[in-house]
Design goal:
Subcellular location: Cytoplasm
Order of helices and strands: EHEHEHEHEHEEHEHHHHH
Number of strands: 8
GO biological process, one term: L-proline biosynthetic process
Distance between the termini: 38 Å
GO molecular function, one term: pyrroline-5-carboxylate reductase activity
CATH superfamily of the largest domain: NAD(P)-binding Rossmann-like Domain
Mean pLDDT: 94
Low-confidence stretches: none
Oligomer: single chain
CATH topology of the largest domain: Rossmann fold
Number of helices: 11
CATH class of the largest domain: Alpha Beta
Strand order of the largest sheet: 3-2-1-4-5-6-7-8
EC number: 1.5.1.2
CATH architecture of the largest domain: 3-Layer(aba) Sandwich
Helix content: 40-55%
Largest sheet: 8 strands, mixed
Pathway: Amino-acid biosynthesis; L-proline biosynthesis; L-proline from L-glutamate 5-semialdehyde: step 1/1
Length: 265
């Protein structure tokens, strides 16, 4: 990967998060990364870190091997039309971060048959803690490995079937917002029972982090970890039961399903 050029077209919030994550990978040279944005003043910090910045998408593609399209779905066709003549069959891999566009639809926009991927990271890429789901078309094992390497640089990545990509968007990308809302509610509860906002945030943030790491390291079902905390007639079980009476789990599930139904449309 050291000699592979990577360009991120559309360096908005998500694109910039990925760029910041890649900066921390010692196997990637910042000089081999190019990012594009119309307003360059918003990404000068990436230039200071050694990344090439430009508003010229064609030039960025010409000097790269792996193209990450970090633009809105309605802009994908426009961008591909702009860069199509520079995309070479033996040189390029295209990775779309756009929701709702299949690899087949993207492939049909191109002049040459090249490996096309879809990837869905989340904004935790900025601190190298993203979960990214990936699928591909026309790719060989070595190309899959290269794309996975990029996204493993910003967290963890999974190869999944393409029909699950919309679901992955909801659970991983939208899901981080759901988690933030849960954390905010816990902080508000902490304030109501006596903590100042900063102390409540510190306690809640570490509690959520610890819970997540326990699931990853112990590989247990959440309920088995809950059982370790709940005791007969204890304060934990009454709190959990009150949340369920108020629709906590069902509200969260309904929110996920509603988001999924929106994306399917």
């Amino acid at each position: 990967m050291k000699n592979r050029g990577i360009c991120i077209i559309g360096c908005g919030n998500l694109g910039k998060s990925i760029a910041n994550g890649l900066l921390n990978n010692k196997e990637l040279s910042p000089s081999n990364i190019t990012v594009t944005r119309r307003t360059l003043s918003k990404i000068t910090d990436l230039k200071d870190a050694g990344i090439n910045i430009t508003s010229d998408n064609v030039m960025a593609v010409r000097n790269s091997n792996i193209i990450l399209l970090a633009v809105k779905p309605y802009n994908v066709s426009k961008i591909i039309n702009e860069i199509r003549s520079e995309i070479k069959a033996e040189q390029h891999i295209l990775v779309s971060l756009a929701t709702g566009l299949s690899t087949s639809e993207i492939s049909e926009m191109l002049e040459h048959k090249i490996p096309v991927f879809r990837a869905m990271p989340n904004i935790a890429a900025n601190i190298r803690e993203s979960i990214t789901c990936i699928c591909d078309k026309n790719a060989i094992a070595e190309e899959v490995k290269m794309v996975k390497f990029i996204f493993d640089s910003i967290g963890e990545s999974l190869i999944i079937n393409e029909e699950l990509m919309e679901a992955a968007t909801i659970l991983g990308a939208c899901g981080i917002a759901f988690v933030f809302r849960f954390i905010r509610a816990m902080i508000q509860g902490g304030i109501q029972i006596g903590f100042d906002a900063n102390t409540a945030k510190q306690i809640v943030s570490q509690t959520v982090k610890g819970a997540a790491e326990m699931l990853q390291k112990n590989n247990n079902h959440p309920e088995s970890e809950i059982d370790k905390v709940t005791t007969p007639k204890g304060c934990t079980i009454v709190g959990l039961n009150e949340m369920e009476h108020r629709g906590f789990s069902s509200a969260l599930i309904r929110g996920i399903v509603t988001s999924f139904e929106k994306i399917e449309k």
